Amino acid sequence: MKKQGRGTERKTAIKKESTAVKLIADRSIELNNISLTILNAGPAHLSSHHVTLAISQVSRAIFLNKQEPSYYINRAEGYLLANDYESCISNLKKAQLLLPPRKSMKSTLPDAMPGACWKGVITANENEEDRDLFYARDKFEACASSSVWLNLKFRRIYFTFGQILLDQRRLYESLKYFKLARDFGMCTSSVYLRMVAIYIGLHKTDEALELLYNLIEKHPKNADLYILRAKLYSELGHVDLVSMDLNKVAILNPQHPEMRQLMEYVIWTSIKYKNKASAQILKGQFDVAVFFLNHALELDPTDWITLLKRGVIFSEMGHYESAIADLKGVLEMDDRDRERDAEVKSYVGSVYNKLGVDLFLNKNLDEAVNTFKKAIQFTSTEAIIFKNLADCYWFLDDDNNREKCLYRAYQLNPTDDETREKLAELYFSRGERGVFAGHFANGLRELSKAIDLSPNANYIFERGRVNLLTEQLDAAREDLSIVLKMNPNHREASAMFDQLVSKS
């Protein structure tokens, strides 16, 4: 009887316990539904009193059933309406912990989450494609027990709370929540822009620039991003990088309202560099001058005057290839002063001439010839270039081309005694070879050319001797007479002249 009585008592106790659990569950659901009824009325019909009442009702439901995640979500909604973001986040995190793992969520959802708010909940898995999620794969496992709905909720709350903190200038706290919003897949560009503003406010320029690089990579046609980065560069004094970004803005949006001020900064800095370069040129410090001119050209690559100046300095320093590149670059610029083209071409020809002289001295005769020819293409009025080219032909035993070059040099500068003597010597040598070969007429003609250029005694004597050999006695007598007037002690001329007198 005692055993039977104990069994009856146990059944009665279990029944009472079951009844109590059911009563508690029903009461918690009732309280939760009251809260939902209030919250579902919509923000337009909710006062702060109604929100507080809804929170208190769902809090009582949680007191009765602490393992129901939907209650925490409902309370989070209430805190959200009350603008208590920290409490909202805390409740959502609690709900996230109580949710079953993703793999078992579908099987447990109907039993685990009673309540109207869960009717529209969907589960998340790694293969879902939702354009509004922007999940990063490395962040996906961090949210392994949450639903898509919770993730969306988290990122929006983090973003909103971060913006509120940013408006209050609570920068460190704001940065924390923006990072969380980013990690939960909030629109990257929107989050990054705010993080850039925070890093700037915290004087963390490197971090701000890194984010701007990422943003510009994703939005390469957004002129505002280039302007923002240019402003940061200007604060750091990187005027060359400012110029690069402004060049991009000039293509994307030439009328950007903030471009003018930044461009003025670039222009004034460029002027400073040019002035410093001029001061160094006066001191003879060409390498330092080139340093400043390089910076000026980085800021304004279309400044042909600065490019011309650098080309001339390179020429003075012996950097001929660099000088030629700069000077030719000037001639390719559309906005140059075309009235100065002749001057620039003269500079190019001068540099080619210097380069040709170096090649000649190093016995690179063929290269020297080609280089002097290039010089002539740019300036055909410089006698020195033709003289140098003639010297190359002399070493190459090319008398015809040597004669042409010397004759052109003599035409350009008739007062140059050296050119005249070289040309006369060439004619004299050619005349001697003609006479030796028995071509007396050609020989006399070449000798006469030499005498016309340089009437010295040796040339005239040689012509007189040839005239005597060809029995042109009057011409021979005249030449020998001139030689004796120039040099009375000339023995050969005196002997020949006496011979002519005795014949007559």
UniProtKB/TrEMBL annotation:
<protein>
    <submittedName>
        <fullName>TPR-like protein</fullName>
    </submittedName>
</protein>
<dbReference type="InterPro" id="IPR011990">
    <property type="entry name" value="TPR-like_helical_dom_sf"/>
</dbReference>
<feature type="repeat" description="TPR">
    <location>
        <begin position="424"/>
        <end position="457"/>
    </location>
</feature>
<feature type="repeat" description="TPR">
    <location>
        <begin position="189"/>
        <end position="222"/>
    </location>
</feature>
<keyword id="KW-0802">TPR repeat</keyword>
<dbReference type="InterPro" id="IPR019734">
    <property type="entry name" value="TPR_rpt"/>
</dbReference>
<dbReference type="Pfam" id="PF14559">
    <property type="entry name" value="TPR_19"/>
</dbReference>
<feature type="repeat" description="TPR">
    <location>
        <begin position="349"/>
        <end position="382"/>
    </location>
</feature>
<dbReference type="Pfam" id="PF13181">
    <property type="entry name" value="TPR_8"/>
</dbReference>
